[in-house]
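Help needed: design a sequence for this.
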């Protein structure tokens, strides 16, 4: 299984990788990225079976002469659009540390975001999960979503 993880927090990234390794053992191959521009390039060049997306990501990686990256509160939504238009069968799980996801400048509760994304954009998301650092509930929820795929 090829998995794209779009996450700009190194600690959260490692937690996701560790949990997915626990589930899939050596049957999963990770590609990590930290910014919207990098995710767009990867999705144009490669196919993925699974994508774990943070909704609030940076515009691009910091590079000399490229200007400062800026935080995009709905950058993960742009990644979803990229996946939807890539015509592959990538299953997406949104994993965010915030209680709300901004959709068209409106905060939507994480538990309502899957339905809202489908209603507004006709994009099917496998699930939306709130990540909380000191609570393993997110692992249980991600595992449950993966079992249904």
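Sure. Designed sequence:
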């Amino acid at each position: 299984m090829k998995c794209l993880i779009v996450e700009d927090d190194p600690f959260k990234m490692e937690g996701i990788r560790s949990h997915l390794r626990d589930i899939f053992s050596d049957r999963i191959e990770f590609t990590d990225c930290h910014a919207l521009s990098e995710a767009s390039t990867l999705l144009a060049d490669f196919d993925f079976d699974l994508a774990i997306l943070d909704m609030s990501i940076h515009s691009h990686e910091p590079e000399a002469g490229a200007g400062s990256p800026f935080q995009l509160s709905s950058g993960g939504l742009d990644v979803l659009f990229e996946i939807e238009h890539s015509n592959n069968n990538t299953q997406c799980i949104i994993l965010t540390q915030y209680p709300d996801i901004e959709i068209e400048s409106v905060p939507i509760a994480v538990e309502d975001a899957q339905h809202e994304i489908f209603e507004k954009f006709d994009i099917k998301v496998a699930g939306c999960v709130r990540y909380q650092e000191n609570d393993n509930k997110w692992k249980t929820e991600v595992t449950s979503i993966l079992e249904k795929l």
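The helical segments are 10-24, 36-45, 75-85, 110-121, 137-148.
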